[in-house]
Specification:
Layout lengths: L5 H18 L5 H39 L5 H29 L10 E7 L3 H22 L2 E9 L5 E9 L3 H5 L4 E7 L10 E11 L13 E6 L15 E6 L4 E5 L5 H28 L17 E4 L4 E4 L4 E3 L2 H5 L4 H26 L1
Parallel strand pairs: 4-9
Antiparallel strand pairs: 1-3, 1-5, 2-3, 4-5, 6-7, 7-8, 9-10, 10-11
Helix pairs in contact: 1-2, 2-3
Length: 364
């Protein structure tokens, strides 16, 4: 018995053809964008559905030939041989089809605001936060994403106390969502004179940047303060009140921005971060209602304590959520091999979803 009913395959193919036909005649710009987005999402699914439907039809024809007593023996033998080939091929095609049909996070295609903050560990934590941020910069470059700095507060001895960036591109949140959490580092800091290994930490938050339709913020709910931007140690950066601090009164969430000389630009950047933080809070509230297992981060991408350890003396990276250990730490921190870690987390997420789907099928 097929894991995916023929009627389901037909529905997917019909919808794809309907979208193709509609795209040929539509003129409304908003509908064009919506159709183009749906087309991009459904195309690989429709292609896989067509391939699986073709194989299934071929199998039925071969079985009819093999079972037909009026067919000559040689024809039945050839049909049986081809039938065995298809029977071996179909399970993998069905598995790939199931993966394509797995429910996706609606924010997977969204751009993100990524926030990296120094945690416990003083100056070393700030230096490590800087290492993480450069890792994400390089990863974004490799993936073809665009990373733009929103704001930063430098550490006293390098790195960042806090750094916030906007990352845009195809499927950004889907690739980066598993990075949210506490990242722990074990190494000998440059400031350590006796060669002792210290443990420090930095936190990473990956927040999907909401579209305007996702979250509406009313002007009456905002308190906007402007003040004079200043540099490290109170050094004056400019002589105008260009820095902006926006407080969302219903939630108490605050976002500040002072990197730009223009008050208008600072306000726009602060609003971007504010929206992302409010949206993430709402996501967390909904997730808490839907699931009691908030500590299981794979599949949700939410923050938890110590998701990953970077052990420099052993050149080892361990992701504690899936018990993954790799010994190419330098390449990972450089950003060149971070994709290996993210791919492993994504694969585990898919495996869990498939297992849950199989259990649901058994129960129903």
């Amino acid at each position: 018995m097929s894991l995916i009913p023929a009627t389901r395959l037909a529905q997917i193919i019909d919808r794809f053809e309907e979208i193709e036909a509609r795209m040929a005649v539509v003129t409304d710009p908003i509908e064009i964008v919506a159709l183009a987005r749906e087309y991009a999402n459904i195309k690989p699914v429709a292609e896989a559905a067509r391939a699986l439907a073709r194989v299934t039809e071929e199998l039925v024809e071969l079985e009819e030939i093999h079972a037909d007593p009026e067919s000559d023996a040689e024809m039945r033998e050839m049909a049986d041989a081809e039938r065995q080939v298809l029977l071996a091929k179909i399970p993998e095609q069905e598995r790939q089809m199931q993966l394509l049909l797995l429910p996706k996070d609606k924010d997977d295609e969204a751009p993100v605001v990524i926030e990296v903050r120094a945690g416990t560990g003083g100056d070393e934590a700030a230096i490590f936060a800087g290492d993480l941020f450069r890792m994400y910069q390089r990863f974004a470059q490799i993936e073809g994403f665009k990373l733009s700095l929103v704001s930063s507060t430098a550490g006293d001895h390098g790195g960042f106390k806090e750094v916030i960036a906007n990352v845009t591109g195809n499927g950004v949140y889907g690739r980066l969502k598993f990075e949210s959490g506490v990242h722990r580092v074990q190494r000998v800091p440059d400031t350590e004179t006796q060669g002792r290994v210290h443990t420090s930490a930095a936190t990473v938050a990956v927040l999907p940047e909401p579209e305007d339709i996702d979250i509406q913020i009313e002007e009456k709910d905002l308190r906007i303060d402007v003040f004079r931007a200043s540099g490290p140690g109170g050094q004056s950066v400019n002589t105008t009140d260009s820095a902006v601090r926006i407080t969302h009164l219903p939630t108490g969430i605050v976002a500040s921005q002072q990197d730009e000389k223009s008050q208008h630009k600072n306000r726009a950047k602060a609003m971007l971060v504010l929206k992302a933080r409010i949206y993430e809070q709402e996501r967390a509230r909904v997730d808490a209602i839907r699931s009691a297992e908030r500590k299981d981060q794979v599949g949700s991408g939410d923050r938890s304590e110590r998701i990953r350890t970077y052990n420099y003396p052993q050149g080892r990276l361990t992701d504690h959520r899936i018990n993954l250990t790799l010994y190419n730490l330098s390449k990972i921190v450089a950003g060149d091999a971070l994709g290996e870690v993210i791919d492993a987390l994504f694969a585990e997420d898919q495996a869990r979803k498939l297992a849950a789907l199989a259990e649901d099928n058994v129960n129903t």
